[in-house]
Amino acid sequence: MKLTLVAVSLWTTGAAAFSPLATFTRRTTSLNVGQDPNVYTGGNSWQPDSGKMGSTDTGDYFPEDYDQNNLPDYSEGMMGSQATRGDNSGPQLPGMENLGEDAVMMGGIEEASEIPAGMEFIPSSVPDGEFAMQVAGSSGGSVLPLSVAPVCMGFEDYYAAFSPDSHPSFSVAPVAGRMDRRGGEPTELQVLCEPKGQAGTFEGNLVINLPEDNSKICYKITANVF
Question: N or C, fewer C-beta in 10 Å, the chain?
Answer without folding.
Answer: N
